[in-house]
């Protein structure tokens, strides 16, 4: 006989009378609590919540099961990966520490070596990319775009505001996320995911979730010009602008629209200059974009494959408002499924995908190709990944 059976009917009734008002009033308090947005959540257009099925090129495979976990229990959410002109690979984690990933004597073992601690009080450095002189351009939340000198460890602010045009109010850059530097080092194309901060909170994962729940596209594609020291807006109204990459000829720039599971192409030169078209649609939320070294393809990280709740939540503005108030760990998050996609650099057609449907590596945020290896950044995991013998692995999934 369990404890509950020994309690008399009368005491169960008394307990219920005592507990239910407390639970009820907590529920009422929760429902009436303000959401962390500035405006009421909006219905999300149907086109935005549509994503490609995990079929054909996107059908699950086990290619990422060969990934080697690197920096285990040292790194925390190493989101972006970037390579220096001399082929060294770096990442920055959410404690704002820059690490170099080192291969140990050409074997399949890797170690991470701390290069610099930026200090968490100085915000989160998300995307990074080197210029040919070895300086590093960094996207910082919430402060803007910086130049970092690895020798002197000096950070120089490049921009935190879009250059004021006549008749337009100045607009702060709050969520610089990913970037691409032109071959002549003069221009930096970068995304600004949302145009606000949430009471100074800079956890990018939290900010992105809040923007999804809110349902308002606030992202844009910006360009910083070193020569004139000006920043211009190239695109706006993107639903969490994320990965950015330039074509090899620099005739177009790509920007990933995370919650719309798609990539836009903005033509920079040629007869279509200034026009935008859809370059690719993907099977889930799209994160960083990187061109392959041969220039023939782009790697895109799909952080949350098959976001099945997304179409269901589309019209549920009240429910989304309440979900936004839940503690981080209780609110819906990405599926545990690793997915990166290789896209043809001209047509945008997916050539193949590499996956880990069992999610040993999942929530992949970036993929860069260096010397026949793919380096994978992640959000929420305590390591980054290295996939060796990339050409051999890709042959096995085609
Ligand atoms: C870093 O700073 C030093 C000292 O000012 C300078 O000599 C060097 O050229 C800088 N490096 C880069 C890559 O700008
Ligand atoms: C942010 O973007 C939204 C959507 O485009 C716009 O309505 C709003 O005015 C912008 N806010 C600021 C402060 O620029
Ligand atoms: C660029 O312009 C900004 C103001 O928009 C200024 O704060 C900054 O010092 C300038 N940087 C350089 C390198 O001239």
Automatic annotation (TrEMBL):
Keywords: Glycoprotein, Membrane, Phosphoprotein, Transmembrane, Transmembrane helix
One annotated GO molecular function: hydrolase activity
Entry superkingdom: Eukaryota
InterPro entries noted in UniProt: 6-blade_b-propeller_TolB-like, Strictosidine_synth_cons-reg
GO CC terms of this entry: endomembrane system
TM annotation in the entry: 12-31
Listed PANTHER family: ADIPOCYTE PLASMA MEMBRANE-ASSOCIATED PROTEIN HEMOMUCIN-RELATED, STRICTOSIDINE SYNTHASE-RELATED
UniProt record similarity statement: Belongs to the strictosidine synthase family.
Protein's UniProt name: Adipocyte plasma membrane-associated protein
Taxonomic lineage: Eukaryota, Rhodophyta, Bangiophyceae, Porphyridiales, Porphyridiaceae
């Amino acid at each position: 006989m369990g404890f509950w059976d020994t309690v008399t009917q009368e005491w169960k009734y008394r307990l219920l009378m005592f507990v239910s008002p407390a639970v009820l009033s907590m529920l009422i308090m929760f429902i009436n609590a303000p959401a962390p947005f500035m405006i009421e959540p909006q219905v999300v257009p149907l086109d935005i919540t549509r994503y490609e099925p995990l079929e054909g090129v996107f059908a699950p495979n086990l290619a990422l099961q060969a990934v080697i976990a690197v920096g285990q229990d040292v790194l925390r959410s190493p989101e972006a990966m970037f390579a220096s002109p001399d082929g060294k690979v770096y990442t920055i984690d959410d404690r704002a520490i820059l690490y170099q990933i080192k291969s140990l004597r050409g074997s399949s073992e890797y170690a991470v070596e701390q290069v610099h601690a930026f200090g968490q009080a100085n915000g989160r450095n998300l995307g990074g990319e080197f210029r040919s002189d070895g300086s590093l351009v960094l996207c910082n939340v919430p402060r803007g775009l910086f130049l970092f000198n690895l020798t002197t460890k000096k950070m120089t602010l490049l921009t935190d505001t879009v250059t004021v045009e006549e008749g337009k109010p100045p607009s702060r850059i709050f969520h610089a996320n990913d970037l691409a530097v032109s071959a002549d080092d003069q221009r930096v194309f970068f995304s600004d995911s949302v145009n606000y901060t949430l009471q100074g909170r800079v956890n990018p994962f939290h900010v992105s979730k809040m923007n999804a729940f809110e349902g308002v596209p606030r992202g844009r594609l910006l360009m910083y010009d070193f020569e004139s020291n000006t920043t211009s807006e190239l695109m706006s109204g993107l639903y969490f602008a994320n990965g950015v990459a330039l074509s090899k000829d620099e005739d177009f720039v790509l920007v990933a629209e995370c919650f719309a599971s798609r990539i836009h192409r903005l033509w920079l030169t040629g007869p279509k200059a200034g026009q935008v078209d859809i370059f690719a649609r993907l099977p889930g939320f799209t994160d960083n974009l990187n061109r392959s070294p041969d220039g023939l393809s782009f790697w895109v990280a799909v952080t949350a494959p098959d976001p099945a709740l997304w179409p269901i939540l589309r019209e549920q503005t009240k429910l989304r408002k309440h979900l936004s108030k839940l503690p981080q760990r209780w609110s819906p998050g990405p599926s545990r499924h690793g997915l990166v996609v290789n896209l043809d650099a001209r047509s945008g057609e997916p050539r193949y995908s590499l996956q880990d449907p069992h999610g040993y590596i999942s929530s992949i945020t970036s993929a860069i190709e260096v010397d026949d290896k793919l380096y994978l950044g992640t959000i929420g995991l305590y390591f980054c990944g290295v996939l060796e013998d990339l050409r051999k692995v890709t042959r096995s999934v085609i």
